[in-house]
Amino acid sequence: MTKLLQNWREAASLILAAKVRNTAAVASCSQNDYRILMLERHGKSRFMPNTYVFPGGVIDKADFSSDWLDLFSRHGCKPTIFDPILNIKGQRPQLMTATRSSQVSNELAFRICTIRETFEESGILLTKDAANINTETATPSLSYEYKHPFSADDLENWRLRVHNNAHEFIQLCRHINHVPDVWSLLEWSNWLTPADLGPLRYNTMFYICCVDSVPDAYYDEREMSNLKWLSPMDGLSLFKQESILLAPPQSYELSRLCNYSNIKDLHEFTVNRSDKGCEFLFPVRVNAADGIISLIPGDDMYPKQPDLVGEREIIEIEQSVVENRQSTKNLNRVELLGVFNHDFHCNVSPAYGHVKPILMSNIMKNLEKCKL
Fold first, then answer.
1. Would you say 35 and 18 are in contact if contact means Cβ atoms under 8 Å apart?
2. CA separation for the pair 160, 330 (Å, rounded)
3. C-alpha distances in angstroms, 265 versus 140, 142, 359?
4. Beta bridge mates, 57
5. 266 with 257: CB under 8 angstroms?
6. Any idea where the domains of the chain sit in the sequence?
7. What phi and psi, each to the nearest 5 degrees, are found at residue 225?
8. Distance between CA atoms of 363 and 229, rounded to whole angstroms?
9. Could you say which of 135, 222, 244, 302 has the lowest number of CB atoms within 10 Å?
10. More reliable by pLDDT, 224 or 355
11. Of 29, 35, 1, whose CA–CA distance to 213 is shortest?
């Protein structure tokens, strides 16, 4: 394992995709049969205020507590049950290889963090009844029937307790005789905040989980100001219309999700890709004449040794964003021509069997077609 760089905060986030069963209840594009949970951060937030994000938050030492291993063991879970999340063939990002003083693996702790934070922020609790677990193997299934285990009062009580003390999350699991459903969370990507965006930066693992119906969700008013279930295309359309604000990682990932119109295909893709590895995505920003180019690994302009800590000066070029793109052969970038104007250009094969983002103009064309 490698040593951990401490120039940023470690975090985890969840792309929660839920199949829509009552299409009349959710107005959106008919080409998508699933929605993504998006939460709007408070305007007073220190990081990305007023921005719609996937649920998630900062890792806590409680997520690495050995009490979790005792909980799984007490319910008869054999060590082999964690093989699907541990046996990854591809290169691992630093968050997963970092040496820590805990017996709990990084792969397990970051998933526990994701489930805990999703519960805090949305009230959705992704756990499994310990009595219904195959104690030797566990694999993600699309037939995930989410059932809320609380009354409204109990829900708010536990959310407050977990919000105030992350150690309360294991008490919650003990109380309902459940274990965190770490197997249904599959690695999607790993984003590090660009070095030029200030001292508050995050190194975040993005997971994806597919469920077969839209669960009830209630945003945490302490941290959030709104909640929406959006198809990937609708999310980008609202962003383009300046109705919601997205940061580049969220807009980029929504554009990748636009490759899948139904949740069955999305789930199949994530399962088939789950052991191939997770790419470390550290955007390197270039100031062009009329905007910003956010370079991603694979682009010809991406540095061989990117400046992770922000010691070098920001790259500046005299070309326009379009001129630079036209003069570059291999592209993997987000073009930022305004707060609400992102576009995605990728003509290279993403690492570890991942999928390319779709050009924003093509997304908008597809959206118009499906609304005719």
1. yes
2. 48
3. 14, 10, 20
4. 12
5. yes
6. 9-248, 280-349
7. -120, -5
8. 18
9. 222
10. 355
11. 35
**36-66: b (≥16 Cβ within 10 Å) or e:** bbbbbbeeeeebbeebbbbbbbebbebbbbe
If you average pLDDT over every residue of the chain, what do you get?
89
The correct answer on CATH 2.20.25.110 for the domain covering 9-248 is: no
Q: Which range is least confidently modeled, 3-17, 49-63, 108-122, 142-156?
A: 142-156
148-177 residues labelled b (16+ CB within 10 A) or e (exposed): eebeeeebeebbebbbeebebbbebbeeee
Question: DSSP assignment of 263-304, as one string?
Answer: HHHHHHHHHHHTTS---EE--EEEE-SSSEEEE-TTSTTS-S
The closest alpha carbon to 106, from 1, 192, 249, belongs to 1
Copy the structure tokens of residue 111.
């998933």
Residue 178: both structure tokens together:
């459940």
pLDDT bin (cut points 50, 70, 90) of residue 105 is very high
Q: Is the dihedral of CA 236, 183, 69, 105 positive or negative?
A: negative
pLDDT digits (tens, 9 = 90+) for 134-157: 644 556 666 555 666 778 788 999
**Mean per-residue pLDDT, 238-256:** 95
- Mean pLDDT computed over 246-262: 95
Tell me what pLDDT residue 244 has. Answer: 96
Q: Which two tokens stand for residue 53?
A: 């994000």
Written as six digits, the tokens of 85 are 């999340």
Q: Which residue matches tokens 């030797």?
A: 136
Q: How distant, in Å, are the alpha carbons of 45, 95, 145, 270, 346 from that of 351?
A: 33, 17, 32, 14, 12
Query: Please, are residues 203 and 95 in contact by the beta-carbon 8 Å criterion?
Result: yes
d(CA 190, CA 201): 13
- What angle is formed at CA 206 by the lines to CA 108 and CA 281, rounded to 5 degrees? 120
H helices present in 6-49, as ranges:
none
Sign, Cα dihedral of 259, 106, 42, 16: positive
Joined together, the tokens standing for residue 219 give 């945003």
Supply the pLDDT for residue 152.
Answer: 77
- Token pair, residue 126, equals 């992704």
